[in-house]
Amino acid sequence: MDSPNPDKITPSAISSLSDSPSVQESPFSSFVSNLSPIKSVKVAHVAQGFPELASPPLVFTSPRINAQRETSLPKRSQNPQFSSAHDTNKDCDAKNSPQSESCSSSGCGVEFLTDFKEVDCLNTDSDNTSLKGTNNASKSLFSGSKESKITAFKFDDKSGLFTDAATVVEAHLDSLEKAKKDIQGKPKSDEPINVEEEQKDDASNKCPNIESGLHVSHAFKEHDCQNSHSQDRGCSHQGACTSTSQLLHESLQSVLTFEGCGGSEKVFHNQHGVHRRCLQFGEASMYSNSSLNATSETNGSSLAATNAEFESLEQCHTDLEATSSKGTMVNLPQPIATSLPPRYFGNSSTFCKPSGIGLHLNSIVNAASMGQSATASIKLEDHYMGVKVKQYTSVSIHLIENTKSCSASSNEVDKSSAGDEERWYEAKALIAANSASAESPNTVEFENQVAPYEKRKLNLQKTDSLEEYDQPSPRKKRKKTAGTDSDGCKRCNCKKTKCLKLYCDCFAAGIYCAEPCACQGCFNRPEYEDTVIETRQQIESRNPLAFAPKIVQRVTELPPKNEDGSQMTPSSARHKRGCNCKKSMCLKKYCECYQANVGCSNGCRCEGCKNVYGKKEEFVAVEHGVTKEMLSNRADEKRSENAFDGSLDLDAYDWPANNNIRTMDPISPSCDTDPSLCHLTAPSDTSSMALTSSRARNRTNVPQVQLCPRSDSLSSGGTLRLRNSPVTPITRLSGTKSLQGLDSGSGFYDILQDDTPEILKDDSTPIKSVKVSSPNKKRISPPHGYIHELGSSSSGGLRSGRKFILKAVPSFPPLTPCIDSKDNTIKKTSNLRDNNSNK
DNA sequence: GAGTTTGAAACT
DNA sequence: CAGTTTCAAACTC
Predict the structure, then answer these.
(1) Engineering a disulfide at A676: which of A97, A382, A725, A830 sits with its beta carbon 3.0 to 4.6 angstroms away?
(2) Domain ranges of chain A
(3) CA A422 to CA A461: how far, in whole Å?
(4) What nucleotides of chain B have any atom within 7 angstroms of a protein Cβ?
C-alpha cells in the first residue's frame, strides 16, 4: 500500500491514461460500456464512477429510468393530456441526439422498461397503494404525501395516462425498440458538448435535450424526465425543461449560476460542487452531464414541490418529514426527498457535511463488490426504506447521485469553459459558499468540485505519469494549505502516503483528491479506483470502522438547544472514537473532537480537556445521570463563554458540521415506545431515508427520520448513508468488527447495526473500561461510560438518549439483507438492551 | 514560507 | 497489547 506502484494501477486506469484525453474517463467508461447495457453514452459521462459501480447502474438506473422515462414517453405519447411539455419531452427523447438517445433510449430503454416493470411490481408489492398513489400523485405532487413521491417516480402515472403499469411498460418497450432502431447506426457521442449542441438545436426539446445531453445514465435520463416533470409541476413543464436545458448549456458554457425554477438551480450548483469529489458519486459522476441536468431538474422538481422549503434546510427536512409522516408507507416521495438532501436544495446552509464521506467510498467499494451500484442502491432502499420503498428508494438515490454527478459535471464544464482556473475556483467558492460549515462533507465535495471525469481529463492531460500528480498544479498550489478551502472543501497535502492512507483527509473521507489538493504522487484518483478500493479494503480489514463516520449523534436525545433556540451541538454529538489530546487540551484542531465541533466524551482519553463544545468530564457526568437539561445548560454556558466557530452558530438544525457526523433522529414516537427503534440507525427505518428536521421527528410516526437538521450535511450524510451504508465494506465485513470499533470509540453510542450481534454481545458483556492512557485501545475499547450505561443505567441510559447512533451508518446492514437485517437489528438491539437492563 | 507542534495512523 | 514511528494537519514565527 505504501506506494501504489504504477504497476498497480488498474488496467482501467492505465487504459485511461493511455487513452486519449478526450476519452475522459476511459477506465470508467470502458468498464461501463462493457458492463452496462446502456452503452457508450453513459460511459463517457460516467467517468467518475468506479467501473465496478458502473455495472450496477443498470439495475440501479433501470427502475428509475424505466419508470420515469418509459412511463413518461409512452405516457406522453399516449396521453396528450400530459402537458405539451411532456409531449415535447417525448419528442425530445425520440429526437434525442443519436448519442444520447442511442445509448439511453434505445439500448437502455428496453432494459429500463423491464426494470420499470420490475419497479412497478416492486412498488405494487411493497405498496399496492403506490400505484394508486401514482395516479393520484399528479394531484399531490410533492405535496409531501407518499403519493407525491410515487408520482415523482411515475410521472406518467401522474398524468393518469397509465392505469396499468404493464401497459405502459409495453408501450415504452415499443417506443424504445423503435428508438433503438432509429438510433442504431448512429455514432455515440459521449461528450457532453455534442449533447449540448443538440439541445441547443432543439429549443423545443429542452427536456429531451437534457436527456440526450445527459447521455449519462438511464437513470439520469429518467430522472431528468421525471424531474423535469416534477419541476414542471413546481414551475412549469416547459419551464422546467427549459431551465434544465439552459442549465446544461450554461454549465457547459461554464456559467456557474443557474436560474430557473425557484431556487432549484442554485441547488443544482451546489450539488455539482458537492458531488465532485466524493467517491460515492463515482457512479453519479458517471452520469455527469446528464446527471447534472437530471439533478437540476430533480432538484427543481423537489424544489418545486416545496418551494418554500427550499429556503431552508429545515424546510427541506420538513418536507421529507411531512412526506414520511403523511405516508403510512414510506413512499418514493421520501426517498426522493431524501435523495434530494437539503443541501442540494440550493441554500448553502442546507448543505450538510458529508458526514459519511468515508462511507461513500465504502459504498462504492461495496457496490463494486456487489457488482453494481444499482444493487447497492436497492439494498439501501430496502434496508432503510423498507420493502415497500425499495424501488423508490433506489430511484431517489440515483437522483441524488445524479445530482451530484451533475453538479460535478457542471462544475467541470464550468471549469473547462471558463478556462480560467481562478474563475473556476471562484465558481466553486460561490457554490461552496453556501455550505454551512467549511468542514461539512458537502463542503469537501465542493472542493473537489471538478468532476471526477474532469479530474481524469485533467490528470490525463496533465500527467501521463504519476509523477505529474506529484507536482502540484497551479490550482493545487493555490490551495496548498491543507485542510479545507474557503469553500469548505477539503484538500490534502499528502506527500508520502500517496493519499492512500487515512492520513489523507480526502481518502479518509472517501473522496477522491481533487485539483485543490496539493498532494504528491496521489493515487486517490478516479484513475486508480482499483488501487483506492483495494487500499480501502485493506484498511477496513484492519479496522472496519476506519471509514465510518467519526461523529455520532445521540439518538434519543434531541440536540440540546440554547435558550435562543440554537442547538447545542456539543451535547448531541460526539466523536466516535474520541480524542487523545494531551497538550492541546482539546482546544485546537489537533483535537478531532474540537475539529468536529463536538464535545469530548467518555471515549476520549484526552488530558486536561477543555473542549468548548463539551468537556469530557461533563459528558461523563451526563452519562451518569446528569439530565439533558443540565447538559444543555452547560453547553449553553460554554457556548456563551466561548465564541464558537461559525460552524457552531448553527441554526436550529445545525449540528456539528462534520463530514462524519451521523445523526439519528432522536425522537420518534416509536422511539419512546420502542427503544430499539430509537437506536436503529437511519438505515433501519424506512423513515431514515427521509430527511427530517427535528420538527418532523416529533410529528411523525415515521420512526426516525434521520436527517439531522443540519445535517446537512445531513442531507449529504443522509444520502450518503443510504448509498454507503448498504454498500459499505464495513457492512460487508459484518457488523461485528465494525461495531467493535464503534463501541470502542463511542462507548456510549449505541450503534445499532443490524449485523452486529457480536458487538451487541460485547456491549452486553461487561466491557473493560478503556484505558485512558492507552492510545491503541482507545479505538478498540469501549468507553467507560458506555459500560456504565450498559450496566448500571442500561435501560435508563439508553432511554435517556445517551446513545449515539450513526445516523448514516455507512456500514449498516443494508449491505446484506436490508430489510430483514433491519428487523433483526432492531430485535438484537432490543435484546441487548434487555440484557443490559437485566444486568 | 519554513519550521515546529500535535495527535492520529501505521507499524513493530 | 504496548510502544514507537510515521505522517500530515495545525499551528507558530
Answers:
(1) A830
(2) 57-408, 551-838
(3) 19
(4) 1, 5-11
